[in-house]
Every structure is written in C-alpha cells, then in structure tokens.
Design goal:
2 domains, about 120 residues, mainly alpha, single chain, 3 helices
C-alpha cells in the first residue's frame, strides 16, 4: 500500500507543477508589451473632449441614479434586518447601516464634484 500512495503523491506533485507552469506560460503570453505608433495621449484627449458632454449626461442621469437606488434599497433592508436583530438579541449593530449610509451620501453628492476632480 505505501507504493500506491507514493505513486499518487508523485502524480499529484507533477500535476500541480504542470498546472503552475501552464499558468505562468499563459500569464507570460498575455502580458506582452505593446508599443503604440504615434501620439496616443493626444488621440485620447481629443476623443474625451468630443464625447465629454455625452458621457457626463449619461453618468449623471443614468449611472449615478442607479447606484443611488441600489444603495438606498440596501440601506433600508440592512436597517430593517438590524432592527429585527435588535428586537431578537437586544443589541443594535450600527456598523453595516452606517457604512451603507456613508456610501449613499457619497454617491448622492458625487455628481457635484466628480467632474472637477476628473478634469
């Protein structure tokens, strides 16, 4: 019986080594350096300048309200579950509702200052 377990252990080690080598080769092939031809930064700046108003409108009118709604729902659900735990155990847990409230305040006020930070 010890021979069989030694064979399994050797096979397991070889399999592990093969998997690690495959992962390393895959990472090496995926992370090749790419050199761009021409001035990339001016192309990015001109693209941003031409699409800036559209991006701002979409983010301010779609993305932020969706994030606000999700955070508001999560906040009220967590507040309700914290209250139920309080009724059951007699101790109110403030951490999770406070974190969600802080995130909600941050997300609600972000459209006022985020574009000055990014510009």
């Amino acid at each position: 019986m010890p021979k069989n377990s030694a064979k399994r252990k050797g096979k397991r080690i070889l399999t592990t080594i093969a998997c690690v080598l495959f992962a390393l080769v895959f990472i090496a092939m995926s992370s090749l350096t790419v050199f761009a031809a021409g001035d990339v930064s001016s192309a990015i700046q001109s693209t941003w300048n031409s699409a800036q108003t559209q991006i701002k409108n979409v983010v301010n009118n779609v993305v932020f309200p969706v994030i606000d709604m999700i955070l508001a729902v999560l906040f009220f659900v967590k507040l309700a579950t914290a209250y139920m735990d309080y009724r059951k155990h007699g101790q109110f847990e403030f951490a999770a509702p406070a974190i969600l409230f802080g995130c909600l305040v941050f997300a609600l006020t972000a459209p006022m200052y985020i574009w000055t930070v990014l510009s």
